[in-house]
Write a structure and sequence with these properties.
Number of strands of chain A: 0
Largest sheet of chain B: none
Oligomer: heterodimer
Radius of gyration of chain A: 16 Å
Largest interface: A-B, 38 and 28 residues
Number of helices of chain B: 5
Order of helices and strands of chain A: HHHHHH
Number of strands of chain B: 0
Strand content of chain B: under 5%
Number of helices of chain A: 6
Radius of gyration of chain B: 42 Å
Shape of chain A: globular
Helix content of chain A: 55-70%
Distance between the termini of chain A: 50 Å
Chain lengths: 130, 152
């Protein structure tokens, strides 16, 4: 199959955003589908720029419609979707508060308090095991 | 010796975290710094040298660092596996093709809409011309009729 540059760009971005999608849904198949859906949405919409930040934004938006996780052993997955997204983008991707606020469509103050709450909640959940 | 300050716009966030943590240590030196932090940013130079010596502040910071490290290990970071990557590359190719196809359809629809609207313009022109001709014809018939009436 002849693979063009555009498809190559999409593949690079998809690989980068996959860990974020996985952290939100905690399931390989759902994370894969979320990435593909987000890619299609952006690529087929002429008004949206194909970038890592936009892809994260679409992943987060679409993940809200995903069915809730049923059984989770991980402490991280007991957090809310927004808390998981803030923690992941801050601690794993090293994004600034303003970048996170654009991706999650919330203001920077809420990102600050969300991060603090998420850290405290996770630490409390880990409490007995840490 | 050149003094390196903790505070700068690039490490503002880290500075805030440090102040937040050492404020919990109960050390009166750092509490003085915190009280003055908005009035004098250079106090962070003092804070940095103080952190090297003060065991209470060091403990507070160490606890915080350990806490953050523990939190980081709890956050999953899973990369896509090779089998899924192969399927994904095919999927990406398909998405690009679909996008091209859609752009082509959009162009054709736009083209049809343009020709449709120009047909409407032509039709309007024809209508006005026709009504004008009709008026002229009626006028002419009226004049001819009037002349015949005068002759009779």
């Amino acid at each position: 199959m002849q693979f063009n540059n555009r498809a190559g760009q999409l593949l690079d971005l998809a690989q980068k955003v996959y860990p974020f999608a996985y952290s939100l849904l905690n399931d390989e198949v759902s994370a894969y589908q979320l990435v593909v859906d987000s890619l299609s949405r952006i690529e087929l919409d002429n008004n949206e720029e194909m970038s890592f930040h936009n892809l994260c934004r679409f992943c987060f938006e679409l993940s809200k419609k995903a069915p809730p996780l049923t059984s989770t052993k991980s402490f991280f997955n007991q957090l809310s979707l927004e808390e998981k997204a803030i923690l992941f983008l801050k601690e794993k991707e090293g994004m600034s508060f303003s970048e996170i606020s654009k991706i999650l469509a919330i203001n920077s103050v809420n990102v600050h308090s969300g991060l603090s709450n998420a850290r405290n909640s996770l630490f409390e959940l880990m409490g007995t095991h840490y | 010796m050149e003094t390196t300050y903790l505070y700068s716009d690039s490490n503002k966030e880290m500075y805030e975290h440090i102040l937040d943590q050492v404020s919990k240590s109960g050390c009166r030196h750092t509490n003085l710094v915190i009280a003055n932090k908005d009035s004098n940013k250079n106090e962070s130079g003092f804070l940095k040298s103080h952190l090297i010596e003060c065991p209470e502040c060091q403990n507070a910071l160490r606890n915080w660092e350990e806490r953050i490290a523990a939190i980081r290990t709890e956050i999953p970071y899973k990369k896509i596996d090779q089998n899924e990557l192969k399927i994904l590359s095919a999927e990406c190719y398909q998405i690009v093709e679909q996008s091209k196809e859609l752009a082509k359809i959009n162009r054709e629809v736009q083209k049809s809409l343009d020709s449709f609207s120009s047909a409407f313009v032509l039709k309007d022109l024809f209508k006005s011309f026709y009504s004008l001709t009709m008026l002229k014809g009626l006028g002419l018939a009226f004049i001819v009729g009037y002349l015949i009436y005068l002759l009779i």
